[in-house]
Design a protein that fits this description.
It is a single chain. The chain is of the alpha/beta class. The chain has one domain: Phosphoglycerate mutase-like (Rossmann fold, 3-Layer(aba) Sandwich), CATH 3.40.50.1240. The protein has seven helices and five strands. The chain has a five-stranded mixed sheet with strand order 3-2-4-1-5, with helices on both faces. Helix 4 links the parallel strand 2 and strand 3. Helix 1 crosses helix 7. The chain is globular, with a radius of gyration of 17 Å. It starts with a helix and ends with a strand.
């Protein structure tokens, strides 16, 4: 357990430092993040993870409303998960704005392993994967092949360091389009949140969050 938290804390602390350094010399560059629109699996409360489920009609309408709501927010570039629900969201939100969309595998959703596709897991007594959501600090090792915190934070931490930091230093306004768990890992690293608060951001679908 200590090993898991040490790895988590290393990535949080590392990226807190790059954010602090950036804040000291920033101009007007901004960092935003948004979660994809609704899918049929969201409506049925099914765990999606890496399963590539498209937006449903409601999800496309959500992305369309977001496009109007945030039309005046300036973005130089968008980095997006390659999963179709995120891709569709980014494409609808940015339609007609000539903003480049760059897909990066490190922005894929957290894998939930054998539990992807399970419906209403919270209604299943003692369903092992629920600990990841209800008590993230107790999720110590992979359950059913699900991704670990160390694996998730390794890839999103590398993305922040290798991609986001240089772009911010160039003064670029950045949009990240992703998923609930993956986005939360970025929020935790940028804001320096402990693992107990992993889900505290409460990321709503198609609602823009300003991180910097």
């Amino acid at each position: 357990m200590e090993h898991v938290f040490l790895i988590y804390e290393q990535y949080v602390e590392k990226n807190k430092h790059f954010v602090a350094e950036y804040m000291q010399k920033r101009g007007k560059a901004m960092l935003y993040i948004v979660r994809h629109g609704k899918t049929d699996w969201n409506s049925r409360h099914k765990l999606q993870g890496r399963t590539d489920i498209p937006l449903n009609q409601e999800g496309r309408e959500m992305a369309g409303r977001a496009a109007e709501e945030y039309r005046d927010v300036h973005f130089d570039i968008c980095y997006c998960s390659p999963l179709i629900r995120a891709k569709e969201t980014a494409q609808i939100m940015l339609q007609g704005r000539e903003i480049p969309i760059v897909y990066d595998d490190r922005l894929r959703e957290m894998s939930f392993g054998d539990y992807e596709g399970i419906e209403n897991s919270f209604s299943i007594p003692d369903c092992p994967i629920n600990i990841l959501f209800q008590a993230p600090e107790k999720y110590q090792e992979s359950i059913g092949g699900a991704e670990t915190w160390a694996e998730l934070f390794a890839r999103t931490g590398a993305f922040l360091e290798e991609v986001i930091k240089p772009q911010l230093e160039l003064g670029k306004d950045i949009l990240i389009v992703g998923h609930g768990a993956m986005n939360s890992s970025i929020v935790c690293q940028v804001k320096g949140l402990p693992i107990e608060q992993f889900w505290s951001a409460g990321l709503e679908q198609c609602k823009l969050m300003k991180l910097l």
